[in-house]
Amino acid sequence: MSENKRKRNKASRMGVDYSLLVVVGFLLGFGLVMLYSSSYYSASIKFDGDSAWYLKKQIISTAIGIVAMLFFMAVDYKCWRKYTWAIFIAATLSIFLVLTPLGIEANGARRWFSLGITSVQPAEIVKIAVILLLAAILSANIKKVNGLLPMLFVFAIALVPAGLVFFVTDNFSSAIIIAAIGVIMLIVACRNNKGFIALMIILLALAVIALVFFGGFRATRIMVWLNPEQYSNEGGFQVLQGLYAIGSGGLFGKGLGQSVQKLGFVPEAQNDMIFSIICEELGLFGGIAVLLLFAFLIWRFMVVATNADDLFGSLIVVGVMAHIAVQVILNVAVVTNTMPNTGVTLPFISYGGSSVLFLLSEIGLVLSVARHTRRGREV
Fold first, then answer.
1. DSSP bridge partners of 104
2. So what's the pLDDT on residue 331?
3. Where are the alpha helices (DSSP H) in the chain?
4. Is there a domain that residue 256 lies in?
5. What pLDDT sits at residue 146?
6. 340 lies in some domain
7. Using CA atoms, how far apart are residues 174 and 126, in angstroms rounded to an integer?
8. 262 or 22, which is more confident
9. Distance from C-alpha of 16 to C-alpha of 5, rounded to nearest angstrom
10. Domain that holds residue 315
11. Using alpha carbons only, what angle is made at residue 114 by residues 110 and 120, rounded to the nearest 5 degrees?
């Protein structure tokens, strides 16, 4: 047997999900291209002519993230089960590091702490910790966690760090995503979930009402969403410019690098609003292509979760799927003014070192589930 054939057989036995690797790799590469395209103008102004400043920072974080992904892929995911509580407690405590001298303030909020070569957003650590802990709890107690009260008890575990992320770092969007991860994992894992779903809908409605009447600047965001033209000075400017970018792109766009709105019109175009620049430069076709890539990614998650050897592995994949799906939906909804602005980045594409680092770590966990399943050929 030739060396190449032996390698192919070994890969097949290991169950490496090459489809997942390829789509993640494409999203990363595409993200770096669009990041540079959307940021070179603002970077050259802010950083003394260094138009690639954002790109270089993102490449460093991506490289670290790829190393983390390979590490988590190589390690059997089952070994993390006994450390889930320790990881959860450490992640929760890391939130308070933003209040120490390590904390970094940007745009009026302290949501990061410094590790020298890169900064870390503790909310991203919490997301992985919640996924691992809920997967461990639910897989070990699936027969007990069935019904409203047991589900609420488990959900409260996710609400604790979500609340801390909100109150300590003032990061409402990440708190929403953490809570959403918990809700989706519970709904998927538990059969008798009708009461839980009904209660979550009621709580969501009450939360929206509370935001409208007592939400302060977040209530203003709702007003901006409903009438961005009237509130252009209170946040509607960014929304309107994003919509202008999408509309001006037409079907096939103005061409890569040819965006006008990124030239100071769309604030922080490389972050939350990067999807609008994609639509302006690559058109509706490019925007739909990106969404189809994410849809394919979600489908691969579903395949891996379905074929996982145990419930723990399956729920890890469900948690990662929930995280990425919710974040994509929120980002695109905000950019298209389908919902109020929440400050959510587009996974693998928007600028953000912590985001890409921990997203790749989550992908590594999913690849580990696929790699260590006995039905690797089916995955």
1. 112
2. 93
3. 3-14, 18-46, 53-74, 84-94, 122-140, 148-169, 172-189, 194-214, 217-226, 236-249, 274-307, 311-335, 353-371
4. yes
5. 82
6. yes
7. 10
8. 22
9. 16
10. 14-82+124-371
11. 75
Structural domains of the chain, count: 1
Domain presence at residue 118: no
Per-residue pLDDT reduced to its tens digit, 271-314: 888 999 999 999 999 999 999 999 999 999 999 999 998 999 99
Q: Give the tokens for residue 354.
A: 């912590």
Instruction: Tell me the DSSP string of 77-135.
Output: GGGGGGGHHHHHHHHHHHGGGGGSTTEEEETTEEEEEE-SSSEE-HHHHHHHHHHHHHH
Distance CA 38, CA 258 (A): 10
Question: Half-sphere exposure of residue 376, counting CA atoms within 13 Å on the CB side?
Answer: 18
Query: Whole-prediction pTM value?
Result: 0.90
Residue 352 is which amino acid?
G
Rounded to whole angstroms, how far apart are CA atoms 30 and 289? 11
Q: Give me the residues paired with residue 112 across strands.
A: 104
CA separation for the pair 105, 310 (Å, rounded): 42
Both tokens of 125, joined, read 């650590």
> For a pLDDT cut of 90, what percent of the chain falls above it?
53
Crossing angle of helices 311-335 and 274-307, rounded to 10°: 160
Helices 122-140 and 84-94 pack at an angle, to 10 degrees, of 150
Domain membership flag for residue 357: yes
Q: To which residue do tokens 């989550």 refer?
A: 362
pLDDT at 242 over 70: yes
